[in-house]
Amino acid sequence: MPQQERAIRTRWAILEAAGKVFDEWGYEAATIAQILAQAEVTRGALYFHFSSKEDLARGVLDTAVTTEGVLPQELKLQELVDASLLLAYRLTREPLLRASLRLSVDQRARALFGTRWPDWIEVLAELLRQAGANGETLPGVDPVQVARLLVGSWTGVQLVSDAVPQEGELVHEIAALFRLVLPAIAVPEVLPRLDVAADRPLRLMSEAGVPAPN
Amino acid sequence: MPQQERAIRTRWAILEAAGKVFDEWGYEAATIAQILAQAEVTRGALYFHFSSKEDLARGVLDTAVTTEGVLPQELKLQELVDASLLLAYRLTREPLLRASLRLSVDQRARALFGTRWPDWIEVLAELLRQAGANGETLPGVDPVQVARLLVGSWTGVQLVSDAVPQEGELVHEIAALFRLVLPAIAVPEVLPRLDVAADRPLRLMSEAGVPAPN
Lengths: 214, 214
What we know:
2 copies of one chain form a homodimer. Chain A has 2 domains: 3-61, Arc Repressor Mutant, subunit A (Orthogonal Bundle), CATH 1.10.10.60; 76-207, Tetracycline Repressor, domain 2 (Orthogonal Bundle), CATH 1.10.357. Chain A is an all-alpha fold. Chain A has 11 helices and no strands. At the A-B interface, helix 1, helix 6, helix 7, helix 8 and helix 9 of A face helix 1, helix 6, helix 7, helix 8 and helix 9 of B.
C-alpha cells in the first residue's frame, strides 16, 4: 500500500476510534489511552496525526456536515428529504457520523468547539430558498426558521430513537417525521410527488453506484 | 421556619445546585464538591438528603415529567399543545427542569439511569388517544408514533435553540414547531380552534392563579 494511502487509512482509523470512545464516554471522560486501545495504533502514530484530544474532537466534528449520496432532483424539497433520509441511513452504519452528532449534543464539547448545526441549518435553508423560488413551498414558509426546526427535530428524533428503541431503524422514524411536517411546507401540488419512503436512501445509493454499507 | 419545611427547602436547593453543575459540566465530570459549593450547604446536609452523585442525578431526573399548569380543555389536542408550550416556558426559568432534560441527553447519565422520555411519550400518547376518541385527529395518526416524534422534536428543537440562539425565547420555537406539525395531526375543523400562541403559557398560569416566575 503506498505510504500516503496508509497514512489516510490510519488517520481515519484513529478518528473512528475517537468517535467510538467519545460516543460511549462523552468528551470530558474520554481519554487518549482509551482511543489508542480502540484504534490499535501506536502513541506515535496518533500524535503524528492529532496533537491532542481537542484536535481529535475537531477532526470528528469536521465529518458532521455531509450530503454524500444526494443527487440533483427536479424538486428541491426532494433533495432536502433525501439529505435527511440519507443521513439517518448512514448514521446507523457509520460510527464516526454518529460520534460527530454526539459531540454536538455533549455540553462540554459544545462549549469548547461549538456545533455544526449552523452549517446544517444553512444547507437546509438554502434548499428551502430554492424550493421557494420554484414555487414548491407554501406562502409563509420562512427558510431559516423551518431549517432550524428541521435540524432540531431530526436531532431529537435520533436521540429519542436511540434511547427508547423500537422496531425498525432510525430512517423509518425520520421518514415519519417528514410525513408529519411536509404538509405544512409543500404546496398541495408538490406534496404527493415527494418520495419519503424509508428505502429511498438505498435506492439513491444504488442509482449513484455507491455500494450499500450492509 | 418549621423544621420540615426547612428540610424540604434544603433538599430543593441541593437539587437545584446539582442541576446547575450537571448542566454545565455533564454528569461524568460533575463532582460533589462542586455541588456543595453551588448549594452553599454543609457536606452533612447534602449527605442527609442524598447518598451519592447517582442519587442526586436520580433526584434531578425525577422532576422531569411535569404537566404543572395544564388545565382541562374541551380539545385534548389543546392540552397536548399546552403541556408542550408550558414546558418550554418553564424550562428557560427553572434550572432544575433544564438539568433533568440535559441528563437525559448526557450519554453517561443515560447509560446509568435511563431517561424520562418513555414517560413523556406515554403522557402525549394518552392525550392523542383521547383526542382520537373525540374525533380530533386525522385518520392514520398513530398515537405512540406521533408522541415519539413530538418528544424527539421538542427535545432537539430545545437543544438547537440553546446552541444556536436567535431572538425570542424557546417557547416561540416550540410554538412554531407545533404550527408545523399540527396540520398533519388535527382534522381541519379542529385545527383553527387550537391556540398555539407563544404567550399562551403566561395566560394559562394567570388563569390558574400561578404567579408568573418573571
